[in-house]
Amino acid sequence: MPRRGTVALFGEQRVVSAQRVLAPFPPWRGFTNFDMRFGKNIVNGVFLERPNRYLARVEVGGKEVLAHVPDPGRLTGLMLPGRKVRLVHQPAAKRKTDYTLVLVRHGSIWVSVFPVFANALIQEALMQRKLPFLQGYSDFASEVKVRNSRFDFRLGFPFNPAYVEVKSVSLVEQGQGRFPDAPTERGVKHVKELIELCAKGYRAAVVFVSQRSDTRSITCNDDIDPVFGEWLRKALAEGVELYGMNCKVTPTTISLNKEVEVVIPEVCSGRE
Q1: Domains of the chain, each with CATH number or no CATH
Q2: What global pTM score does this model have?
Q3: 3-class DSSP state for residue 25?
Q4: Do residues 20 and 141 make contact, with C-beta atoms less than 8 angstroms apart?
Q5: Do 137 and 156 contact (CB within 8 A), yes or no?
Q6: For 104-135, how does the pLDDT look when each residue is reduced to its tens digit (9 = 90+)?
Q7: What stretch of H or E contains 272?
Q8: Measured between alpha carbons, how far is residue 267 from residues 185, 195, 223, 226, 234 in Å?
């Protein structure tokens, strides 16, 4: 029996295999949306300040409360005083806060600041065979350990498996998603190991998921982390595949929207 886990969408739990999902899969008929709901305990608030990476002060119902911020990145351009936010009220004895900040209003759109949603959306798409750039696998496993790292997914193919890492993109400038929005040693480590796997004959890929609808393309953020950008260029040259998706986000749901181009300049543009 495979070890089982859950992807909890705040009060509504979807049981999935944490190790292996077996065939048969339905035949692929093109990309279609499916929504993930945030549950019934979602409330409105107003962002006040962010004392540290994982904590926000928010006004809810006229009272100031503390909320957990699941994205430790800088969230540039999003976490601004006075911004409307959506939070999940989920009190529990072992929690330090009763609220989790999930969405931030940015102009006319909602932006998700919950990185785990990216993995959950890709996992659901793999279960339904809805990713146009990943087809032909017989099964897949999640949270797969390879040497000293864990990769998000391993897909079973007739000869060699494919290893897939998912990265959540929150920063968008003039329609272009930029990853990362803070230096990421973990991201560099993953990219290096994907290059090694590719050199051994395995298929390897990074899927960037921008949890907002205004993303038209995705690139590396050399200004923030030129080291990641350099290794991503090496990965592309060595055969690691790069894909991008944006999302449709409503006040109560999030879903994959459409594939977007990943554009990597030949020369690193980061500041020295």
Answers
A1: 4-34+114-262 (3.40.1350.60), 42-108 (2.40.50.580)
A2: 0.86
A3: coil
A4: yes
A5: yes
A6: 999 999 999 999 999 999 999 999 898 989 99
A7: none
A8: 21, 19, 12, 10, 11
